[in-house]
Amino acid sequence: MPSRRELANAIRFLSADAVEAAKSGHPGMPMGMADIAEVLWNDFLKHSPGNPGWANRDRFVVSNGHGSMLLYSLLHLAGYDLPIDELKRFRQLHSKTPGHPEAFHTPGVETTTGPLGQGLANAVGMALAEKVLARRFNRPGQAVVDHHTYVFLGDGCLMEGISHEACSLAGTMKLGKLIAFWDDNGISIDGEVHGWFTDDTPARFEAYGWQVIRRVDGHDPEEIAQAIRTAQAESDRPTLICCRTTIGFGAPTKAGKEACHGAPLGKDEIAGARAALKWPHAPFEIPQDIYAGWRARDLAGAEAQWNAMFQAYAQANPELAAEFERRMRGELPADFVAAADAYIAKLQAEGPTVASRKASQMALEAFGPLLPELIGGSADLAGSNLTLWKGSKDVNAEDPNANYVYYGVREFGMSAIANGLALHGGFLPYDATFLVFSDYARNALRMSALIPTRTIHVFTHDSIGLGEDGPTHQPVEHLASLRYIPNNHVWRPCDAVESAVSWKAAITRTDGPSCLVFSRQNLQHQPRTVEQVADIARGGYVLTDPPEARFDLILIASGSEVELAMQAARALEAEGTRVRVVSMPCSNVFDAQPVEWREGVLPGWCRKRIAIEAGVSDFWRKYVGLDGAVIGIDSFGASAPADQLFKHYGFTVEKIVAAAKGL
Ligand SMILES: Cc1ncc(C[n+]2csc(CCOP(=O)(O)OP(=O)(O)O)c2C)c(N)n1
Ligand SMILES: [Mg+2]
What we know:
By secondary structure, the chain is α/β, with parallel strands linked by helices. Helix content is 43%, strand content 13%. It contains 27 helices and 20 strands. Strand 4 (187-188) and strand 5 form a beta hairpin. Helix 1 (4-22) packs across helix 2 (28-44) and helix 7 packs across helix 17 (411-424). The chain binds thiamine diphosphate and magnesium ion. Thiamine diphosphate binds at residues 28-29, 64, 66, 114-116, 154-157, 160, 183, 185, 187-189, 247, 261. Thiamine diphosphate is lined by residues 28-29, 64, 66, 114-116, 154-157, 160, 183, 185, 187-189, 247, 261.
């Protein structure tokens, strides 16, 4: 039987040799954290290499994602479907081993990491998911949901502000099954961290309400194992294990130095490490006894035990078991779509004139009772975002149906935690803040689209229409910039009906996130035929046409500007101009429609077009072309009542009529 050090050295050399072959990558972290990973994976981690989607597996996140080769080595050695050839193709096009770990790309990778600190926040979301799901589904003697969330992190993750947001909340929420390993190696890219990172990290985490295990030798398997046992014994507080390590452990001249953080070691240095660590094997050659050592534990037994338990559980609680499986598969209840459509039809008939943020809350009231997987929250703006509905229950309360997180003022942490909730499975998360503060959450929004996760980001106070709070609170460039994130769907509905449709679209979407953008002020209901109600889901559709077949001009608008476009259309009609009005609640979805649809809505022969949106004008050029005009805002807003602001910035019937005449 190989020694623990030999098992860990397999990680070290797979990592260093893969980086060498790729001529790029990060050998230092995998060589430094190899001993910790070896103990965690071989003695503690509950997982199923042949069944990476096993619902009750421990979650393992590498938040310092530059150490991706550590994870790929672990997955390979433990027997996941990641052959050695994929490690040889580290960082190459279409390999299973991209530069940083990518979820849904490599079996066993739980989340996409690389942007430092965010994996840690995802892990907080996963631990929260475990806790809330356990309360809902576990029965005495049948802990269907009962696993840990382990996360590796580096100095960089701790320097990032998001680590404060996420870890502060994790302490408050008492996520006792979250266990974090700090790679305390004193090094980041620019060198020894004492010039830029001198926090008392253990004291900081104690202040958050965490259990902190100090001064663990990250190269001593016994100390590591003892720390993990102590961490597991704590049920209320998350645990931070502070592991002193040497970056690039084993490299003769580069160990302990930033030189091995993010560059190949080089031929001589690797040869020196082979000699120092007594690893005589050629690159990518792993002796059978090393593989055997990595696969010695009876993992299948634990999974079989769980399966047997789940079977008994399902017999005793068939509905609960079916519901658990449905939620973990991420499938909606069978009756959801029909119920949503009935609600939307009813709204169209009733025609309420409300703020779209209010319409959003109405949609939550209608859809929430149908969706136990819905888990909401807001960054301390519940009363403004209108994210609470009658069924909302604080996750901190001991309620089996808890479904609401008071995130506090932590936008970035919130959205990254929501992504973690989605990744864990069993939940459909929505989060919320003012649209202008989407910037604070920005990279987590990008990550929802990239991973991708089904996360719903609610943003209210969508324009100068929020009024007196002024330019700091008035988004201008945000709508366009969110639309530019690939795979992101940004909905800005014009009334209660479009609001409900955008909620339905976000809920039924399976391959990415949606941003739902709502107004503070009331928005007038728009009349529609049954067909037009169905058209909303296309992202852009004809809201009104002149009685004659032909029209002279197209007005395109979103959100609060749609009613203005309708008023302008009537004024233009009175003067003899025949106008089509296009409502464009989601340009991302519209752009993905077949050309026939897009051409049907915006026919090429009609070059007289005006787009109207209280945001930057450039975005709309692609729809109006050089012959058209855009009425937008290309400066910051101002503090004043909303109706005065709309006038001041030219959102008036007169301005639109004048623009039409100028085409
Ligand atoms: C948000 C973010 N900023 C910057 C980077 C670039 N970056 C990658 S690793 C790193 C240094 C991290 O230091 P540490 O976590 O101590 O890693 P170690 O060198 O110890 O492996 C930086 C700045 C990044 N990946 N993400
Ligand atoms: Mg470091």
